Amino acid sequence: MPKFRYRALDASGQMVVGVIEAASNEAVVPELEKISVLPIEISDESGGGGGFSLRKLFSRGPTREEISGISEDLATLIKGGVTLDRALLIMSETGVRPAVGQLMHDLHREIAAGHSLAEAVSTRPDLFPRTYAKMVEVAEVAGTLDDTLRVIAHERRRGDNLRRRISSALAYPSFLIVAAIGVLIFVLFAIIPEFERALAGFQSESAEPFIFGLSRAMRANSDLFAIGGIAFLGAALLASRSKAVRALLMRLIARIPGTREIVLYEQTTVFCATLGTLSHSGVDISAALRLIRDLMRDARSAEKIDRVIAGVRQGHRLSEALLDEAILPPYAVHMLRVGEESGELDSAAMRVAGFYEARLDRSLTRLTSIMGPTIIIMVSGLVAWLIISVITALLSVNELLI
């Protein structure tokens, strides 16, 4: 049954906001009257009753970069003395993309109805993660919303830049691998058959090069190969959205020589940067660790953090619990211990994050410089194998003619 979001007045004249299930938009009013509220605004929560439209199909919601941008803009307005609801209203009317403007309008409506900003953003976990909502919640209580929003924007941009660097480092080797596969398929389907026809009748089947048999088998089952390729791409696309599959992939990558330290550095950077940001915003250690647990890609790491949380609740220091579980490198744990002892855990965590982010950059650069030439050598060997196979067949024909 479709869901509808409503804004209404209760019997005491207070504004209430909620979501209700009903068969249609018209059926919402009687349902609200049953609970003694007067509806003011009703909107389809499911996106217009499930009707199909090209605009909905190709519409794009706010991106991560836009969420970071509006967080910084909101911080600037609040710092300048503009109230939160007025700031949201201004941002919804400043010529931003319609999707962003609608988001600002929705947040303004929630604030005007008496909800806090943390409550408003927590209803949209696809745009605002739990760490965002928790930091905003603490900042609203402490009266540091402007500073917190600026810190959030900065850390989100830093995290986005880190992900882009990792993607860029892996893009070139991936391109070489795809290009090598493409070259092999082209040669097997287009080049080798020409040589096979030219050499037909000059050599026995027992002396036939392996490359000719492989080409013939692939051409005979081209439909099967095409369907298999499409199915593989579709499965890879669906699997990329699965958290369990991504966790399994990370474990496999961590077993590859030379990549284990990259996975460890990336995990350490994310852990410490998030810990430092949450601690700076006033989030307690247990809550911060629970939020960090949700960011872990590996289920084993998440289980270790659960044990760290249990240790902290039993009165152990964070550094002691981390050292027992070996989640982070020993150097990182010792740096966090210094921060705990000096009462500057947030600053220590951010320094550790910066240190391991720099090491991650160097490791990615070294891995790329090694993988690039290695893959090129492998492609060259593949091409050499193809050429040698064809030349061998030609030489055998010449021997027969002689």
Describe the fold and architecture.
This protein has 402 residues and is mainly α. The protein folds into three domains: 3-51; 60-128, Up-down Bundle (Receptor-associated Protein); 131-402, Type II secretion system (T2SS), domain F (Receptor-associated Protein, Up-down Bundle). The chain is 72% helix and 5% strand. The protein has helices at residues 28-34, 54-58, 64-79, 84-91, 98-112, 117-122, 130-142, 145-198, 210-220, 222-239, 243-254, 260-280, 285-293, 299-313, 318-325, 330-342, 345-401, and strands spanning 3-9, 15-21, 38-44. It has a three-stranded antiparallel β-sheet with strand order 2-1-3, with helices on one face. β1 and β2 form a beta hairpin. Residues 47-59 have low confidence and may be disordered.
Short description:
This protein has 402 residues and is mainly α.
Task: Write the topology of this structure.
Elements: E1 3-9, E2 15-21, H1 28-34, E3 38-44, H2 54-58, H3 64-79, H4 84-91, H5 98-112, H6 117-122, H7 130-142, H8 145-198, H9 210-220, H10 222-239, H11 243-254, H12 260-280, H13 285-293, H14 299-313, H15 318-325, H16 330-342, H17 345-401
Antiparallel strand pairs: 1-2, 1-3
Helix pairs in contact: 3-4, 3-8, 4-5, 7-8, 8-9, 8-12, 8-17, 12-13, 12-17, 13-14, 14-15, 15-16, 16-17
